[in-house]
């Protein structure tokens, strides 16, 4: 830290002056100023400063001001029209003309009938900020990081692409799913965060997301091929019916404590040891698996098949296997018939194909889950189960949309309060009361309604500081306020240019990718670090990362091996040839246009 020169002059300034200066700077300049002095470092991360900037630059506040301006202009026009009739109050229908007269000696009344007193601008801003504030009591927020995510620069970084090389040929391997793996639940000493994905060749790939064990975005390990195929390695697995279903988004679930991952492969659930990248067990279901829940401590994994919901207790697998062996050894058929051990719980579905399954978190403990299970999919209702009374359906929420994904927050949501707050009409006391006295959870469902994207928010009253972020069908990532209606920002994913083969038409823009799944990369251990919550996404074929930085964290060429001299020369020769060919085509086009000026039709004549 600097302790003299410029830093001393900054330290002599009052905090109010420094905060006022910082309010006019962008995050990049403020980040550099943090290195000048300890005082600046403290003030640069001041929560109140960044919370006010988030509020003042939010689309929510701009919408509110525009709405008020529109209504104000409408009222002014109405008063102007009525002013023409002031000379004849009776003609204007004004029976209270005497109320407009002065009270004493030409002095007008200070309060006009039917209109509230004029409120101060400062009081109005405080009320507007209270209506906008998305946080709940005891919710920790870094408003510096929040401002960067709302307004800072963004970059799309593509993780290293898995490739298969055989006899001089090279091909890209497509990723078929995504889930994050935190070794030892994030308490491994380095805060490792690994992305887990099944590949198209039946192997499993691990990426280092933050570079704690290698290069950020690089492939850390890959298993042998074919281990995720139904028939196992060495079999003929060319048919798609033996591989991971490309239509299943939630096909991976990770157990961070036991270092295991579960993969849905058609109607099979394959358990993998993530430390050895080997198969541990295989479980089969009667129908194809279409969705897996996340794995939480002390609760079974919820498995959704095309026609039912199952509770799969992977902890009891060893006991079940041992019991089955004893029964076979005894060769007692009647013992199995009258066995008092209950069958595995199973809930049938009248409408097929669940797509998303979530376990509702416990209020005040987001990492712990309750007994409530919510299931959404290609049907019009979101189903609610209680694990203690499974497979009975407790109730359902009518949506009308086909649900593609769901999320839950351990904070209440009131559609009525949300609508009133959008117009800035609740007082600060009412906002505080609604947050403190509210009970329940917030259920967020994204899907499709009448061929259009839909985002629905439900308040659950049985038994949020990050803005809502999701992807759409146009290749964009969008951030929304917690009201689910006010868009904060959007970013188009684009295309991973590093995987394109050389082409004459390389300058033409390629079609953009679509994000099928997005997850947060916020660290689980240690104190909160600024700007530590990037967005990891899966397109159905490859993995990418949205970082809030002015320049990309890495590029495709960063993962290339040391180039071979002969290969580099061959690539340069290919590039020169393609450039010469493009120039020849341009010359030919110029000749055709020139000949057309003399009435010749070029090649067609």
Task: Note down, in words, how this protein is organized.
The chain is an alpha+beta fold. 25% of the residues lie in helices and 26% in strands. A 4-stranded antiparallel sheet has the order 1-28-27-26, with no helix packed on it. A 4-stranded antiparallel sheet has the order 4-5-6-7, with no helix packed on it. A hairpin with a 2-residue loop joins β9 and β10. α5 runs parallel beside α8. It is globular, with a radius of gyration of 31 Å.
List keywords for this structure.
alpha+beta, 4-stranded antiparallel beta sheet, about 600 residues, Methylamine Dehydrogenase, Chain H, disordered C terminus, 13 helices
Number of strands: 28
Query: How much of the residues is beta strand, in percent?
Result: 25-35%
Highest-level CATH class of the largest domain: Mainly Beta
Q: In CATH, what is the homologous superfamily of the largest domain?
A: YVTN repeat-like/Quinoprotein amine dehydrogenase
Mean pLDDT equals 78
Largest sheet: 4 strands, antiparallel
InterPro entries: F-box-like_dom_sf (IPR036047), F-box_dom (IPR001810), FBXO28 (IPR039719)
Protein name: F-box domain-containing protein
Pfam families: F-box-like
Region (Disordered): 72-123
């Amino acid at each position: 830290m600097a302790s003299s020169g410029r830093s001393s002059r900054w330290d002599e300034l009052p905090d109010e002056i420094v905060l006022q200066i910082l309010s006019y700077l962008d995050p990049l300049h403020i980040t550099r100023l943090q290195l000048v002095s300890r005082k600046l470092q403290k003030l640069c991360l001041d929560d109140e400063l960044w919370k006010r900037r988030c509020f003042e630059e939010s689309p929510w506040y701009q919408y509110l001001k525009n709405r008020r301006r529109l209504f104000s202009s409408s009222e002014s026009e109405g008063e102007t029209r009525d002013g023409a009739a002031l000379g004849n109050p009776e003609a204007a229908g004004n029976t209270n003309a005497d109320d407009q007269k002065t009270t004493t000696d030409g002095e007008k009344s200070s309060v006009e009938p039917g209109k509230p007193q004029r409120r101060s601008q400062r009081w109005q801003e405080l009320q507007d900020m209270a209506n906008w504030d998305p946080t709940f009591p005891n919710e920790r927020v870094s408003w510096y990081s929040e401002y960067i995510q709302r307004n800072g620069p963004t970059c799309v970084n593509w993780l290293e692409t898995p490739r298969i090389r055989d006899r001089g040929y090279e091909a890209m391997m497509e990723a078929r799913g995504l889930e994050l793996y935190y070794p030892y639940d994030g308490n491994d000493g380095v805060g490792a965060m690994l992305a887990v994905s099944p590949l198209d060749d039946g192997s499993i790939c691990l990426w280092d997301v933050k570079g704690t064990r290698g290069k950020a975005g690089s492939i850390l390990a890959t298993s042998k091929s074919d281990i995720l195929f139904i028939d196992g390695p060495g079999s003929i697995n060319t048919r798609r019916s033996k591989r991971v279903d490309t239509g299943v988004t939630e096909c991976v679930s990770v157990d961070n404590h036991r270092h295991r991952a579960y993969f849905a492969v058609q109607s099979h659930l394959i358990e993998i040891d993530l430390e050895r990248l080997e198969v541990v067990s295989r479980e089969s279901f009667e129908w194809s698996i279409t969705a897996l829940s996340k794995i939480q401590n002390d609760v079974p994994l919820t498995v959704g098949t095309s026609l039912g919901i199952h509770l799969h207790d992977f902890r009891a697998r060893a006991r079940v296997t041992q019991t089955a062996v004893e029964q076979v050894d005894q060769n007692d058929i009647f013992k199995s018939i009258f066995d008092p051990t209950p069958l595995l719980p199973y809930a049938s579905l009248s409408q097929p194909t669940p797509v998303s399954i979530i376990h509702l978190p416990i209020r005040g403990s987001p990492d712990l889950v309750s007994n409530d299970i919510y299931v959404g999919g290609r049907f019009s209702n979101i189903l609610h189960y209680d694990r203690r009374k499974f497979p009975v359906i407790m109730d359902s929420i009518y949506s009308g949309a086909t649900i593609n994904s769901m999320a839950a927050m351990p904070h209440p949501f009131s559609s009525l309060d949300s609508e009133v707050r959008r117009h800035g009409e609740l007082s600060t006391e009412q906002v505080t009361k609604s947050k403190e006295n509210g009970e329940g959870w917030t259920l967020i469902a994204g899907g499709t309604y009448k061929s259009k994207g839909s985002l629905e928010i439900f308040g659950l009253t049985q038994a949020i500081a990050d803005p809502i972020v999701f992807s759409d069908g146009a290749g964009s990532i969008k951030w929304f306020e917690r009201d689910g209606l006010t868009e904060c920002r959007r970013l188009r994913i684009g295309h991973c240019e590093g995987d394109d083969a050389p082409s004459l038409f390389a300058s033409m823009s390629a079609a953009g990718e679509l994000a099928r799944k997005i997850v947060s990369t916020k660290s689980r251990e240690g104190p909160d670090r600024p700007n530590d919550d990037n967005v990891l996404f899966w397109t159905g074929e490859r993995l990418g990362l949205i970082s809030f930085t002015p320049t990309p964290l890495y590029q495709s060429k960063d993962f290339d091996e040391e180039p071979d001299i002969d290969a580099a020369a061959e690539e340069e020769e290919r590039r020169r040839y393609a450039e010469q060919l493009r120039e020849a085509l341009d010359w030919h086009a110029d000749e055709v246009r020139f000949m057309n000026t003399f009435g010749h039709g070029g090649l067609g004549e």
